[in-house]
Amino acid sequence: PATKPATPTPALTTPVIPLPAKVEARSGQFVLGADTVLVVTGANPDAERIARDFAGRVQLARGFQPELGKAGKGAVTFSLDPKAALASDEAYTLDITDQGATIAARAPAGLFYGAVTLWQLATADGGKGEARIAAQRIEDAPRFVWRGLMLDVARHFRSVDEVKALLDQMALHKLNTFHWHLTDDQGWRIQIRQYPKLTQVGGCRIPAGAAGRDANGKPQPYCAFYTQDEIRDVVQYAAQRYITVEPERDRPGHAQAAIAAYPQLGVTGKAPPVSPDWGVHTWLFNVDDGTFTFLENVLGEMMELFPSRYIHLGGDEAAKDQWQKSAAVQAKLRELNLKDDMQLQSWFMGRLGRFIESKGRRLIGWDEILEGGPPADATVMSWRGTQGAIEAARAGHDVVLSPAPELYFDHIQSDAADETPGRLDVISLKDIYAYQLIPAQLSAEQTKHVLGAQGNLWTEHMRTNDRVQRALFPRAAALAENTWTPAPRHDWNDFLQRMPADMARYRTTGFHAADSAFAVRFAAQPAADGRGTVTLSNQTGFGHIRYTTDGCEPPPESDAYTQPQAGPLPATIKANAFADGKALATTRSFAVDAKNLRARGSHALRSCKKGLALRMEDDAPANGKPDGDRAILLADVFDPCWVYDGAELDGIGTMEVRVGQLPHNFQLWKDARLVVTRPATVPGGALEVRLDGCEGKPVATLPLAPARHSDGLSTLQATLPALSGRHDLCFTFA
């Protein structure tokens, strides 16, 4: 069927994300141009800095920079009044007339957000030179106080400049909390002066697979950390954008990097390597006084660097195997008269919670801290669905929603061939927008404990900054509206109408946001007369799809797609979606030929049984370059078994398969029992292909021996028996 554009919202569409709480349309328009003067009422350094920041952003987007000056016609006024009758320090009003604009707030945060709204209005058309902004009055305040993103830098490190670029985008979407996951089993990323081995040893690992070897086959360590001066720089940069940096230092689990540096902190006294594996590890901190001295000293240095109210102490996925086998730990449990290991973890977290509370801070941790009884004043971050949030709020604890998979941004956002690596299933832009942040099970009184929500990005499969940016945005824009805008104002179709301007702003600021929601997708199949039929669509159904067949980029006036296209072979189709004459995504191209009509990438295969499915990057860099492009492969950690549905086999005599070799570097703890292995039928193993089911005798066997000696992709071929008609093909590795 033809792709139809979403129905425009008839009310005033204010091209701002998140949508303000209240907008009143007025007649006329304000012209923001090179002659516009920025006026700051009173000698307020915060207001002056916000005005200069606004001017700098206008310069980047429109090509001119308004100057600070005195009041007059056509001015933008920045007004701070601590006595202003506004809902919160983040609230503001924005009055725009044909005579100028006035931003008013009672605190700098609100003034900054008002300036961001005016900047978005000024950049909505994506053009250069003066901007014409519709007259209107905006009264705005956030729905929730916690509007956040979490970035994991333990698995894959991001530089200071890369973190700052993320903070900029957060600020431009009124997100105010940056949860920084700084330590884990795979790396310790923060300098602690009292314990230099944490970064000297704990900051380095030897990656599994080809990525851990140089061109000569020697170990190639992956090392990185932030100095304390760099941490201070990031914290100050965030504060100037009214973002609080919440640090996380995980415990008692996710401790392998720290124990690798200082083995006496662990239960066994042995030194493990800094882990090259993903998943759930069993190395825990021990529970003796010396370890608490270490943990408190580390927290002391961290609290000097981070002025945040909350300190995140982790508490998740602490596999208790070592505690259970340790005579010393079990003796401590009995000494404390505790019932089990979960109560011991609660005691462990409570002792550290009391320490940070003595410094004027508050503990926040993952929802496992509820097990065994949480510390009295703990705030709970609910990640294992929403049940933890419900239990915590009912018990009187403040909560932050960050449930998996709903707000886990390491999930892929479409099933397109060029999607970023990540977990399956798909969590789309619309899924984030539609997620209900208030659990229905809570009473009105209990909902007061819901501080807000955040999206989490775990980076096991995000090796580059480009991958990180695409995984976060624009889904973070949908989260921003979900956490800022009053629920009755949520309107998916209206949000889509405002997204083209936001996508243009990403390009202007050099930020690599994903265009998965708007990119054209191709579905092809052979036709009976030797021709090929191609269907075009995009994920949201927004915009008008235009295409060309002459190899040229499709302009807005090119042929409109209305129905599946059938044509002679070979041909190349290029297509994009447009709204108001502007491209919504990067043009996609599809070569229509006899081979491609029958070929399927792994993204288009069906898992035999849903296990732990991942889209992963090929482990071998392209052309031997560490930062080169890599192929994307679909893998199932538990059971690599895939189905090609409905293969047309008439006249097909051979099969060609490209395979990649990835390290099975997963610590699965109790889930290791779910891993399926099949005995090899030929030396070196094989890819076995079966017809119409995954049992029975293979119709083709493709030996893997040649691929075992290649770090890159290998092409396997096999002759098929005489087959006809349409059949499902099942692929398994033996």
Describe, in short, the structure shown:
The chain has 734 residues and is an alpha/beta fold.
Span of the ends, CA to CA:
41 Å
How many strands? 39
Uncertain residue segments: 1-12
| Portion in beta strands | 25-35%
Q: What's the gyration radius in Å?
A: 28 Å
Summarize the amount of helix as a percent range.
10-25%
What would you call the shape? globular
Which descriptors apply to this entry?
39 strands, alpha/beta, disordered N terminus, globular
Give a written overview of the molecule.
The two termini are 41 Å apart. The longest helix has 18 residues, at 45-62. The protein is 22% helix and 26% strand. Strands 8-9-14-16-17-18-19-21 form an eight-stranded parallel β-barrel, surrounded by six helices. Strands 1-7-5-6-4-2-3 form a seven-stranded mixed β-sheet, with helices on one face. Strands 24, 25, 27, 28 and 29 form a five-stranded antiparallel β-sheet that branches. Helix 1 runs parallel beside helix 2 and helix 3 (160-171) packs parallel to helix 5. It has 734 residues and is of the alpha/beta class.
